[in-house]
Amino acid sequence: MVAQCLTSAEAIRQSDTLKPRLVLVSIQLQDGETAGYRLLAHIRDHMPGSCGIALLQESKRDFALEAFRQGARGVISRGDPFRLLAKCLRKVDGGEIWASSDQIGYAFEALKREAQVVRKPAVGLDRLTPRERDVVLHVSEGMKNAEIGEKLGVSEHTIRNYVMKIYDKLGVSNRVQLSRQCAELLDK
């Protein structure tokens, strides 16, 4: 742990300065019951090398969905055992998403209800650097960040940064969408 903050403004300042890989964000801070969402959005928009994990007072549907909408890569409740928090931190640090089966169910229900998914317009693979294209190729083959890093001679953290930049450039938010979009672009 490198810092502990009580307000979203203080947490944003500390995060910008320290640039941690993981940020455990209590949604309820001193400056508001939902102020933590502001920090999650800041991490999503301004800190591509960092991952936010939402710490919820209660694991309610709307709280969990909003945490994911604001960019959380993991969602955990204060009522969960400490061992689950530790596992959540490890999994998110390893590039995975963390959520309970109920929270995953909430996300699928929300997707079914949405009439239309808003996506950035697709751009061609020519917008990617040669290294990013290498990463895309390996992601499409189903390789994990650590495996890609080993193959390309860089750290897993560097690969995670490449993947986040690729997501942004191509307007996707996960590996399945990335693989699907790249397959579509290669078929054209």
Q: CATH homologous superfamily of the largest domain, by name?
A: Response regulator
Mean model confidence by pLDDT: 86
Number of helices: 9
Low-confidence stretches: 115-122
CATH architecture of the largest domain: 3-Layer(aba) Sandwich
Q: Roughly how many Å apart are the termini?
A: 48 Å
Number of strands: 3
- Indicate the structural class: mainly alpha
Largest sheet: 3 strands, parallel
Q: Please write the string of helix (H) and strand (E) elements.
A: HEHEHEHHHHHH
In one word, what is the shape? globular
Strands of the widest sheet, in order across it, are 1-2-3
Helix content: 40-55%
Our Rg estimate from Cα atoms comes to: 17 Å
Short description:
By secondary structure, the chain is mostly helical. It is built from nine helices and three strands; from the N terminus they run H-E-H-E-H-E-H-H-H-H-H-H.
Topology:
Layout: H1 8-18, E1 22-26, H2 36-46, E2 51-56, H3 61-69, E3 72-77, H4 82-93, H5 101-113, H6 130-140, H7 145-152, H8 156-170, H9 175-187
Parallel strand pairs: 1-2, 2-3
General description of the model:
The chain contains nine helices and three strands. It is mainly alpha-helical and 188 residues long. The protein folds into two domains: 8-113, Rossmann fold, CATH 3.40.50.2300; 125-187, Winged helix-like DNA-binding domain superfamily/Winged helix DNA-binding domain (Arc Repressor Mutant, subunit A). α2 links the parallel β1 (22-26) and β2. It is globular and about 45 Å long. The termini are far apart. 27% of the residues are buried.
Keywords, separated by commas or semicolons:
single chain; 188 residues; mainly alpha; Rossmann fold; Arc Repressor Mutant, subunit A; 2 domains; three-stranded parallel β-sheet; 9 helices
